[in-house]
Design goal:
Blueprint (H helix, E strand, L loop, with lengths): L1 H23 L4 E2 L3 E6 L2 E6 L3 E7 L4 H16 L12 E2 L1 E4 L5 E6 L17 E5 L3 E8 L5 H18 L8 E4 L11 E7 L4
Length: 197
């Protein structure tokens, strides 16, 4: 029995490792957006509709949301679906965090929509389509943690308030790198805003 558990554990490690390798590949597909305006310290982007695989979480911070969601979403894209089909990893991994509840999402490759994706075997993985949005985005490097995320979220909120830009949603953390990418790490905080072009 212990041998079975060992093989299961090794299998999970292999899946996560492969997802990390795929995630850090240089040709990885990234979520599409258009830069609308560059401001001092942040930029405004237009995000068209996209398809997400999402896990809801009771966690309210980065550590809790990351640990509870990544494994299940990785399981879905590495064959945990009704077609036993592998789906390419994309960037960024999106985390929406609040005191009322949080979510982690993988952006699905652009060639898929909600109707063409295989159905998750895990019922807690939900396939959703986002709405078009304008978002203010601030970037930071290094490894993310709750302190940095709070700091940069507060900085972005202060910059938006200073510019008189109306915030219309909670913040998202966008992570672009695998844990073993030590150099050139990229993280972002995005906040939905009211914007007219």
């Amino acid at each position: 029995m212990k041998l079975v558990y060992l093989f299961i554990a090794l299998g999970l490690v292999f899946v996560v490792f492969q997802s990390f390798r795929s995630f850090s590949a240089s040709k990885i597909e990234t979520q599409k957006y258009r830069v609308v305006k560059v401001e001092e310290g942040f930029e405004i982007r237009f995000y068209p509709k996209a398809t997400f695989a999402t896990i809801q979480s009771s966690g309210s911070n980065y550590k809790q949301v990351a640990s509870s969601g990544f494994r299940k979403l990785a399981g879905y894209i590495f064959g945990g679906n009704d077609q036993n089909k592998s789906i390419a990893m994309t960037a960024p991994v999106r985390m929406e965090m609040s005191e009322k509840g949080s979510a982690m999402s993988f952006v699905m490759p652009e060639k898929y929509d909600a109707s063409s994706l295989p159905k998750p075997k895990d019922a807690t993985v939900q396939i959703k389509q986002s709405t078009e949005s304008y978002e203010a985005v601030i970037a930071f490097g290094g490894y993310a943690n709750d302190e940095k995320i709070t700091d940069y979220t507060n900085k972005l909120v202060a910059l938006l308030n200073k510019k008189g830009i109306k915030i219309i949603g909670g913040y998202n953390f966008l992570g672009y790198n695998a844990p073993f990418d030590f150099i050139g790490r990229k993280n972002e905080i995005s906040i939905p805003i009211e914007w007219k072009e």
